[in-house]
Amino acid sequence: MAPPAAQRIVIENCAIATVDADDTEYASGHLVLAGNRIESVGAGKAPEGLENVARRIDASGHLATPGLVNTHHHFYQWITRGLATDHNLFDWLVALYPVWARIDERMTYAAAQGSLAMMARGGVTTAMDHHYVFPRGCGDLSGAIIRAAAETGVRFTLARGSMDRGEKDGGLPPDFAVETLEGALAATEETVREHHDASFDAMTQVAVAPCSPFSVSTELMRQGAELARRLGVRLHTHGSETVEEEKFCHELFGMGPTDYFDSTGWLGEDVWMAHCVHMTDSDIAAFARTRTGVAHCPSSNARLAAGIARVPDLLAAGVPVGLGVDGTASNESGELHTELRNALLINRLGAHREAALNARQALRLGTYGGAQVLGRAEQIGSLEPGKLADVVLWKMDTLAHASIADPVTALVLGAAAPVTASFVNGRQIVDHGRLVAVDEDAIARSTREEAQRLARIAAQG
């Protein structure tokens, strides 16, 4: 808990959705933040006689929730939005890999700034980036991404990705954009040792994250899992995203994606997979038995016509499920709060129809579910005393939401709600919809310039 002398922020008069184990909610309640921890949360006014109160916030007309947790993204894609808009996954990758293979440190930093800024101003307090494109001579891409996250003020997990199966080996990426097996493992270990923080209130963590079965050798998958467990960090990759991927796995490995992952050590409570759209009952049972997590990316899955993930069945089986923006070349909005709505709506198009998900389940996916998937459910994802002070105040009394009586329903099914304040580790990073620590207009200019520079370089071949 926070020390007694910690400065306090008192938030009062707001509706509160704690997303705790009992889904406790308050129609009008309070939060007390002490240092970087939540000290108290409850109905009515804050306790009397609090010392060291640095600030009091009258949050009338607002809903307080845990900060949103993004569990899958590719920041570099911010500067290649709006391309290959009518492609399936494999055709999309073939079209874009030659462009992505020419990114450098300056481009990656600008793209990370853009991706982070868009998420943070929309209520994301914990972000992650699965970065796996490391062209030769590109500079320190991992360091650039981590620097952008620190400047924005969000809590961050870098999934240090890798690819070693280029075109000559039957993969999709150009050969000059992949690493060697030894080089990928060494660079990943160096990134973990330099940047991973295992402490309770860590702002930066690192996961081991070979890209996907069709861009990574079996040996990189196997040794990557061994490396992660030796270093005590989590594992992340793409899995079961499309029917084409399933066909690829059967042709190359003689088994489906889940069995392949199992054979390489890639099922376990320290693992989470992106997408998991094409899952059989036995696949879901394997994930549930091993507590393997899933990052559900509904907008990206729809954009690439991948299909509808069986989220209700995954949840019913006890599989941890969070939400992901995914890269903005397949989800141009770059926002996670819109994924709450899309997760609910798209899943209702599936077999479970109107019983698939409700508003509170959608909010749980975007908060506590994401914390579970990132291995941080003890620290974030719900508003409870002792947890880290990652809190969002959504303004719910404007034209867009004021006539919806239930604030959680308004947040999930209504228009994107304005963020009046967002706190990470007890520090405010958004104030009335604007980022506090970085200049959004400057980021917009730099991302446009870097997108244009990348387009020129790619056009030159």
From TrEMBL:
**What are the UniProt keywords, alphabetically?**
Hydrolase
Hydrolase among keywords: yes
SUPFAM superfamilies xref list? Composite domain of metallo-dependent hydrolases, Metallo-dependent hydrolases
Question: From the record, what ranges are coiled-coil?
Answer: none
Gene3D superfamilies membership = Metal-dependent hydrolases, Urease, subunit C, domain 1
Q: What's the domain of life for this entry?
A: Bacteria
Q: Which residues form the Amidohydrolase-related domain?
A: 64-408
Q: Does the keyword Transmembrane apply?
A: no
Per its UniProt record, what InterPro entries does this chain match? Amidohydro-rel, Metal-dep_hydrolase_composite, Metal_Hydrolase, MTA/SAH_deaminase
The protein depicted here goes by the name 8-oxoguanine deaminase
Q: Which organism is it from?
A: Streptomyces pharetrae CZA14
